[in-house]
Amino acid sequence: MTTTSPLGTADLAHIDLLAYTWARGVPHDQFDLLRRESPVHWHTEDGGSGFWAITKHADVKRISRDPRTFSSALGATFIPDQDEETLMMLRLSVLNMDDPQHTRYRNIVAKGFTPRVINKLIEDIDARAVRVVDDVIGRGECEFVNDIASKVPIQTICTMLGLDDELWPRMVELTNMMIGSLDDIGGENAGQMAAMEVYALCDQMAAARRAEPRDDIMTALVNAEVDGQRLDDGELNMFFVTLIVAGNETTRNLLNHAMLAFIDNPGEADRLRADPSLWPTAVDEMLRYGTSIHNFRRTAAIDTEIRGTPIKAGDKVVMYYAAANRDEEVFVDPHRFDIGRKPNDHVTFGGGGVHFCLGASLAKAQIRATMNEVVNRLGNPQLAGPVRRLKSDFVNGVTHMPITFEPIGS
Ligand code: HEM
């Protein structure tokens, strides 16, 4: 939940963006202070080397667009320090590659996610969203996360990859376990067990597509060549996991935050129902306000500086997207949810550059389809119990959100 109570300079000594983030929701009070007083802030880390916390919009953009200075591969893109073996595995994902390798791998799947390709999927995405709301509309209540938000994202990415329909619910469970390791989802070692299950599934699918190609992303992956070589099993597994997790957790949680934003701001839902021409700006505002990924990390490849603060080669630099998205130098009244906001140069999909979110067009289509059904059919939505948040300093997650509503026009 948004907190705007002002903190003072003395509070800089108590900034904690690791434990704090999941305990109370997005720490906007700390982000406001950091942007104002310490925009390039040295953050200590129990059991880790510490990192620079970056909270200004301009800095997130500059770092994202300078991958030679700020590497995704050196230390990978997650905050914790990794041992060399884990790093080697993480570097099999496009997220954790630098050029020239990054472009070669990204190009294997990039043509499956262009706005033109996604436009062709829109009818299908819209129809799925209608069915999701059909299933709950008669009840007057639902558990929003599982009954609504989880459905369209997993169905779409599984269909694009070529996964059979009956596997969809299991894929939601598995990605939850992989992302929720701080939250003990599924118990001890659940993350590792889930990853093993996903890899095994990927191996089976790869074998099936080699024998019998289809028009899906898995077929593109098994046929792809980088420098004359086919992808090996490890590379296929990491691609598959990256797409499943990135295509699922992010959009689902964005939908959860969009629902919360409309519950807190019912006037904005009225405004959107009255003027559907506001949908494009509304979707961008849901993205800005809900920022469902907290951060990605870079590692300085050379000695450099940010805002005059020296950064040494090897230092970790963490970009806080939710902080940049509330930067008062860029957004007027940044803590306000305003579905007509224009311009809206949010960094929810990253600050631009070569790692800019591959699924941005897909995510926008899914958000528009699902929230269109929610806003136009579920009137007067109210929380019917406590909202449970995911304990994660990476995904801005909601795991449980019971709501009531009054069906509109039925
Ligand atoms: C609201 C939903 C989403 C959010 C907030 C989001 C956020 C992001 C961000 C911040 C990055 C930049 C990573 C970096 O700079 O290191 C990224 C990259 C990526 N996203 Fe998304 N994403 C979303 C939806 C999706 C979807 C639906 C897919 C579909 C598969 C997807 C696939 C990817 C991939 C593959 C990358 C890595 C791109 C690269 O490294 O070249 N994302 N995403």
Structural class: alpha+beta
> Kindly, what is the distance between the CA atoms of the first and last residues, rounded to a whole number of angstroms?
32 Å
CATH superfamily descriptor = Cytochrome P450
Oligomeric assembly: single chain
How does CATH name the architecture? Orthogonal Bundle
Beta-strand fraction estimate:
5-15%
Mean pLDDT: 93
Spans of 5+ residues with little confidence (pLDDT < 50)? none
CATH topology (fold) name: Cytochrome p450
Question: Which ligands occur here?
Answer: protoporphyrin IX containing FE
Radius of gyration: 21 Å
Main sheet record: 5 strands, mixed
Shape: globular
State the CATH class. Mainly Alpha
Give the strand order of the largest sheet, numbering strands 1, 2, ... along the chain.
1-2-10-7-3
Percent helix, as a range, is 40-55%
